[in-house]
Each structure stands twice: as structure tokens, then as C-alpha cells.
Amino acid sequence: MIRVIIAGPRGKMGSEAIQMVNNTDNLELVACLDRKHDGKTLRDIESLPNMDVPIYENIEECFQQINADIFVDLTVPETGYIHTKAALKYHVRPVVGTSGFSTEQIEELTDIANTEKIGGLIAPNFAVGAVLMMQFAKQASKYFPDVEIIEKHHDQKLDAPSGTAIKTAELISEVRGSKKQGHTAERETVTGARGADFDGMKIHSIRLPGIVAHQEVIFGGSGQTLTIKHDSFNRKSFMAGIKLAIEEVMKIDELVYGLDNILE
Ligand SMILES: NC(=O)C1=CN([C@@H]2O[C@H](COP(=O)(O)OP(=O)(O)OC[C@H]3O[C@@H](n4cnc5c(N)ncnc54)[C@H](OP(=O)(O)O)[C@@H]3O)[C@@H](O)[C@H]2O)C=CC1
Ligand SMILES: O=C(O)C1=N[C@H](C(=O)O)C[C@H](O)C1
């Protein structure tokens, strides 16, 4: 049995993750972290399963009282970062889905995990299809260095660009390097019209009600374009990746960034 703590249990991802853990034979939910229901149990909250799993508001208290193997964070960037640091301190392996960490924060968490020899994972996207999209985009950029990323998410999302878009740009940059695209005399008549700039490639973030999580990577070449596209239509699309991450992180003693690091 792998003993799991989930932070953000009332959220869209957290509530799906609880279901996934409850439906998985070798996983056991042992506590949740929730800023609004300290001292209660899941049973006390209408939207959550009828279970006697304790809820904590304070992460240190939670780790001091609960013996757990894995800490899953599905909250917001500022809190997720603090949670992940605490998990590493208490040697509870973090599996982090929360997006919006800075590069410096990811580097710092990686250093701590590696010093402590604790396995962990920060994954911008747990959907296997999205991981493949990123890998295919990296491959394509060798032949098509002119590329723009369009990511589309629901309008409750806090961070822009998405974690997936940033990871995609980072992977493409490993192959393509830095390259300014578009006309040399290009100028914006409305600020932001050309999107965010990452090593000269543009990232465009769309936020609308009615959509979940989608990304297109469009490559342009002489007389042709190539579009690599992934769509998550619901949050179940991320659950197989979280399950795999929980299981695989138990076998490693470093913190990795991206689900691709543990996929065969
Ligand atoms: N890696 C991946 O594959 C995926 C990652 N994500 C990321 O996961 C995270 C959660 O997404 P989602 O479930 O859609 O978001 P939700 O807004 O539905 O859920 C966020 C949860 O975090 C809680 N929360 C908010 N602020 C704090 C805080 N300061 N301290 C503690 N808890 C807090 C919320 O509680 P309250 O109701 O009190 O605000 C809520 O329960 C996001 O960062 C998102 O980008 C999402 C999908 C896939
Ligand atoms: O907030 C979301 O919804 C998602 N966030 C992640 C991201 O920032 O890439 C993963 C997925 O796109 C859904």
C-alpha cells in the first residue's frame, strides 16, 4: 500500500484525484490538506466522499501526525511551492501537478530533493497525450524552427502561460536554440498582440469558459505548416498520469520535472 496525502481536495483536480486513489487497489488516502476545513474529515464535506480521512490546514502538523509516502499537490502556485518544500523536509515524496512555479523554484526544490535523496515529480501535464505532443514538438523543431504555441484553458486558471506551454517551449529551445521570428521591423500597435516571447518563439494564452485544457504547436516552413495538437476534455485525462507518477516516484531518489522522465 502506498499512503497518499492530497492537497486541494475540493478542487477540480483534487476531487478527481481522490476518486482515482479510492479506485486504485495499491493506494490509500490517509489525509487531505485544505485551507478551509481544519480538524474535519472528508465525511463532513458534502461534495467529498463519505470517508473518515482527516483534514488538516497546517502542512507541518499534517506531516507530524500522519505517516505518508506520497504528497500530491493540486492547489495554487504560491501554496504548492510551500507545500512541496515541507514535503521534502518531512521526506514525503511530492507529486506536484500545480502549475505556475518559477524556474528558480523548480531548481531550488530539485536541489533540496537531490541533497535529501528523496524521489519526487513536478509535472506540468499528467495527460500522456500532452507529454507526447511536447515530445513530437521538440522533434519537429529540428526541421521547423519557426513555431508558435497556442494554449487554451478555462477562465478559472490563474497562471499564464500554462505550465505545459512553458515546458513545450523549453523542450523546443533545447533543439532550436534562440531565434527571433517574424519581420525584423514588426511592432505591436496593441500591446501583447504578438503574445509572450520565449527565446524568440511566441506563446498565446486563451482563457474562456466552456473549455478545459488544449494546446496547439504550429510550425511554419516554406509553403507548409505542421500543427501538433492535444485536447484534454475532462480532468480524468490526467489521472492515469498521476497514478503512474505516484507509483514511479516511490522507486527514484531524485526530483524530476516532467512526466516524460518516468514514462517508458
Ligand atoms: N499537471 C497537470 O496535469 C494539471 C495541473 N493542473 C493544475 O493543478 C492546480 C489545481 O487545478 P484545479 O483543480 O483545476 O483548480 P481548482 O481551483 O479547482 O482547485 C484548487 C484547489 O486549491 C485550493 N486552494 C486555493 N488557494 C489555496 C491556498 N492559498 N492554500 C491552500 N489551498 C488553496 C482551492 O481551495 P478554495 O476552494 O478554498 O479556493 C481548491 O480546492 C492548478 O495549478 C492547475 O494549473 C490542472 C490540471 C492538470
Ligand atoms: O489549469 C489547468 O487546467 C491545467 N494546467 C496545467 C498547465 O498549466 O499546463 C495542465 C493542463 O493544461 C491543465
Automatic annotation (TrEMBL):
Binding, (S)-2,3,4,5-tetrahydrodipicolinate: H154, G163, T164
Tell me which Pfam families the record gives: DapB_C, DapB_N
Q: Which GO terms describe its biological process?
A: diaminopimelate biosynthetic process; lysine biosynthetic process via diaminopimelate
Major localization listed first in the record, in broad terms: cytoplasm
Span of domain Dihydrodipicolinate reductase C-terminal: 129-263
Which Gene Ontology terms cover its molecular function? Answer: 4-hydroxy-tetrahydrodipicolinate reductase; NAD binding; NADP binding; oxidoreductase activity, acting on CH or CH2 groups, NAD or NADP as acceptor
Q: Where in the cell is it found?
A: Cytoplasm
What Enzyme Commission number(s) appear in the record? 1.17.1.8
Residues binding NADP(+): K36
Keywords associated with the record: Amino-acid biosynthesis, Cytoplasm, Diaminopimelate biosynthesis, Lysine biosynthesis, NAD, NADP, Oxidoreductase
Where do the Dihydrodipicolinate reductase N-terminal domain residues begin and end? 2-126
Q: What class of enzyme is it?
A: oxidoreductase
Q: Which family does it belong to?
A: Belongs to the DapB family.
Assembly state and interactors? Homotetramer.
State the name under which the record lists this protein: 4-hydroxy-tetrahydrodipicolinate reductase
Give the encoding gene's name.
dapB
